[in-house]
Amino acid sequence: MRAHPRSSTIGAWLAALVVFLPATAFAHAFPERAEPRVGAVIRTAPTRVAIWFDGDLEPRFSTLTVTDGTGRRVDNGDGGVAPGSRRLLQTELQPLAPGTYKVTWRVLAVDGHRTEGDFTFTVRPPQ
Fold this sequence. Notes:
By secondary structure, the chain is mainly beta. It has one helix at 5-20; strands at 31-35, 41-42, 48-53, 63-67, 80-81, 88-92, 99-108, 114-123. It is elongated. The termini are far apart.
């Protein structure tokens, strides 16, 4: 049985489309770096948490929270995409006591893909 000439044309067109689509069409936004760093043990409590992503974020659907060891929020409730930088997610913090803190982020990339994650950092008591 012979393939219909039109089906081979459609197949070739689809193959070319996949090859030539920009890589960002299938991308997600993933963290590149964070302050404080993931798993950091620090002596001076930070005043903010910031995470830089490898792609632009949708501000209305991107959040950042920080909680202490008991699950109490210690951020100021302002976690979101920074004005002027659609790749930076940040939040200001309340004064932190020594302890371990959990950072939780959820973002929607401009391409429509959601990613989320969390990490901890620890503030050591002063010596």
